[in-house]
Each structure stands twice: as C-alpha cells, then as structure tokens.
Specification:
single chain, 299 residues, alpha+beta, T-fold, eight-stranded antiparallel sheet, three-stranded antiparallel sheet, 8 helices, 31% helix, 27% strand
C-alpha cells in the first residue's frame, strides 16, 4: 500500500497478503504516535510543549522517550553531526512552517546561523521518564523519528513474515520478500519512476539523504535542510545525495545525513562503522563504499 504523511510519500509491503491488515494497523498506530509526539509544526505536539519549557524538567511519554533515545544514538554514532538541537538553525533559515508552505513563500529572510548545542542540549532521565532541555534549546526530532517509526512498524510486523516500510526515502526491511530478497529502488529524489537502480536486502535499513530534495531560497541564495551543527548553516559538501545501508533505519538515516557533512571523509566514516554506501556527487559521479554492490540490480 502507498500512503502520505508529513508531506512525504510512503510504502508498506508484506511478504504475505494475510499480514497486510495487521501491518496497516501497526502503521497507523506508530504514525499517529509520532505525529502527536514529534511533529514540530503542530502546536499541540509533545515536542512543541517540551521546546516551550526549555530549562525545566518535563515528564515525557514512552514514545517521546524512544524518539529521544534514537536521537542520542544518531548523535553518538555520527560524532555529533546528527544533532537534534539544530531547530534554531533551521528557523534562522526560515524553515518555521511545513515545507509546502515554505516553498510558496519564495525568498525568506536569512538570520544569523545558530550552532547546535551538542551533548549539552538536553538530559534524558530514563528512570523518572523526564527530559530537561538546556535554556534556549529547541529540538527537531524529525529525521531520526521518521526512521525510528519505520523500524518500529517493521519490528512489530516481522513476526508474521517479511515486511518493508518506507517513509520518505527511509526504508526498514525485515525478513524475506515474496521471491526471497527485497529489491529496494534508489532515487536521488523523493519519487520513484520505476527505472531506478535497485539493491537486494533482507534485513536492516537503507536511508537516503539529499541536499536537492528539500530546498528553498533564503537571503537570495538556495539553501537546504541538512544542517551542519558545527556552523549552524546548511550542507555545502561534495555530495548531493548519500544512501547508506546499516543494521537499522535509524543508523542508516544518521549516516546518510552525516555523510553530506563529512565531505570527502564520508566514505571513511561509513566503512569504519561497518556500513555500506552509495554517494552521488553534484556532477552525477557515483562512489561506492564498504561492499555496496557496484553492479546494482537494474529494474
């Protein structure tokens, strides 16, 4: 089945037809959970309420705790390049409304870049199920939460058979496909046309990050949503797109995002972590890392 969420397209596919009703129920459950918990564009979401109480200790739901844990994992795995405290930097670029509305604005104002707060951003107390944001800290959990949702849906469905969950280019895969391995299409955009190269996988996650899919004009220049927490500005590295295969969708998403900020060192970091990747340069040149199948399965 195909679906839409957060301005993104998604896909849910199961090995057996008998799984589909249960899979759709778990999909609806987790998407509703994360929309109410992590959607920063909703004033009534839990993350909006937490952001509004920076400096205070706030009780949080089990879902937000899962999302914060995923954000911490992504930050640690990428040496801080996947930093959930970059919301002020996104706001400085004008990204204060959902993307569709942002695109309709035309050129937005460009404020002074705001660096991420790193390990000082917040403290998560798992024993008491609370979080304390540093003063003036604001969190954006969108990227890691989207990947986590795909992982959780796939984990719930996996005991009934193979499943693939894709949300906006983040893919969680568990078990066998109808004919064995799953064939996952790769695209440099958010849309597939059926002619993309494909790779085969039966477990783990694949995620694609790109500096070309969510762009807008701010201060007279073209900017993107990939934020470098070291500078507070947008990604300007040698790669336009990075696709990473890892043990989970959360880790794949984290390394795909960080690869656009590591620049020429991206391949080293991905390989050292034990993952594989496909990088697309701005001129269209392809590079492969860590055992990625160079002879990709073609549609």
């Amino acid at each position: 089945m195909n679906f839409q969420i957060w301005g993104l397209s998604g896909t849910l596919v199961t090995e057996h037809e008998r799984q589909l009703n249960f899979a759709e129920e778990r999909l609806r459950h987790w998407l509703n959970e994360f929309d109410g918990t992590c959607n920063r564009f909703r004033d009534d979401s839990e993350i909006s309420r937490v952001n509004a109480r920076a400096g205070e200790t706030v009780a949080i739901s089990a879902t937000l705790e899962l999302a914060l844990d995923a954000a911490l994992l992504a930050r640690e795995a990428t040496d801080g390049l996947c930093d959930p405290s970059v919301l002020p930097a996104l706001l400085a670029l004008g990204y204060d409304v959902d993307y569709d509305e942002l695109k309709r604005r035309g050129d937005t104002l460009l404020a002074t870049p705001v660096e991420g707060m790193g390990a000082n951003a917040f403290t998560l107390d798992r024993s008491n199920h609370t979080v304390t944001l540093a003063p003036r800290c604001q969190l954006d959990l969108g990227a890691s939460a989207k990947a986590l949702a795909a992982d959780l849906i796939a984990d719930d469905v996996a005991p009934t058979g193979g499943v693939v969950v894709e949300i906006g280019g983040d893919v969680a895969v568990r078990g066998r496909g109808p004919d064995g391995l799953w064939a996952i299409g790769l695209s440099d955009s958010l849309e597939l046309n059926g002619k993309e190269p494909r790779v085969a996988i039966n477990d783990g996650g694949i995620a694609t990050s790109s500096t070309t899919t969510r762009t807008w004009r701010a201060g007279g220049q073209l900017v993107n949503h990939i934020i470098d927490p070291r500078t507070g500005s947008f990604a300007v590295g040698p790669y336009s797109t990075a696709t990473v295969s890892a043990s989970s969708c959360v880790l794949a998403n984290a390394f795909a995002t960080a690869s656009l900020l590591w620049g020429e060192d991206a391949g080293y970091h991905v390989a050292q972590a034990g993952w594989s990747a496909r990088f697309v340069r701005h001129d269209g040149g392809l590079e492969y890392v860590g055992g990625w199948p160079v002879d990709e399965v073609l549609a």
